[in-house]
Amino acid sequence: MVNALTEKGREGFLDGTIDWDTNTIKAALVDPATADTAIKAITGATNATPIVITATAHGYSNGDLVYVDNVGGNLAANGFWKIANVATNTFELTDPISAANAVGSAAYTSGGFAICYGPSASGDNVDDYNGAFVGTDQTLISPTVVSGVADANDPTWTSVLAGNTIRALCLYKDTGTPSTSRVVGLLTGKFIVTTAAAASTSATSIVVDKLPYGIPNGTTLTFSDGKTATLSATANAGDRSLTVSALASGILVEKRALAPQTGSGFPLPTNGGNVNFTFDNGPNKIFKL
After folding, report:
1. Digit-coded pLDDT (tens) for 177-235
2. Are 268 and 166 within 8 A, CB to CB?
3. Which of 54, 32, 34, 36 is nearest to 44 (CA)?
4. Among 20, 34, 37, 82, which residue has the fewest nearby CB atoms (within 10 Å)?
5. How far apart are CA 144 and CA 279, in angstroms?
6. Closest Cα to residue 169, out of 140, 147, 197, 145?
7. Pick from 11, 87, 20, 95: which is nearest to 56 by CA?
8. Which of 210, 169, 193 shows the shortest CA–CA distance to 251?
9. CA 176 to the chain's CA centroid
């Protein structure tokens, strides 16, 4: 999913270089409109199989996990991908589980950004991301790790300058040096929904893997085979099916779509006031190992 640990964040927990409840863990507000090593503007997404993304001088590597969002027109490009056939200004989108190619859903119109989750050096430490940070990073208070679930007090940013749009929260271990401060993960308010069975044309229900979060009624999901479904009822955390308007086209099994998390608060335009971030109060809290 996209509310996820980076690859170097996972590595850090496994090799002991990150300790959630004893290290200094900070949270940063991210506006991807400003590029950095890990964050790039997208200027194209081919309506093809696979989808080919254009992001000038992106610097990513084959096998990197990349979050793509806010692409207009070709909505199937939005999601969480493993990238392949990297060139200087382009890369292809593939399913990180099945390795299937992403299928375009329409012509690209505008916009979009990509955020690298590694494992390459393009997405490891906070110096790759902090050009897009807004406001003063906040140290997480009272972090806990009960039953492998990471939690902490909800952070507040005071008097954040107006004019930005916050689309993610970056969590990182602060060493005092950006080039060695490993990024733990990013919270984006989006997550991946995966079909657990094929859904035929005209179907009004889609069987999916268990949902970690809810999805608002009326949300249109664009799947990685280029097909769409619009929810006709709210989906709740823990559900294993989606109630949808009659499908115009069937959707294959193990296809993925990027879904908005109910109540995530993203995107958040800044207006000069405080930003209060509330971590999810479900069983996974901030994240679960």
Report:
1. 999 999 999 999 999 999 999 999 999 999 999 999 999 999 999 999 999 999 999 99
2. yes
3. 54
4. 34
5. 13
6. 140
7. 87
8. 193
9. 26
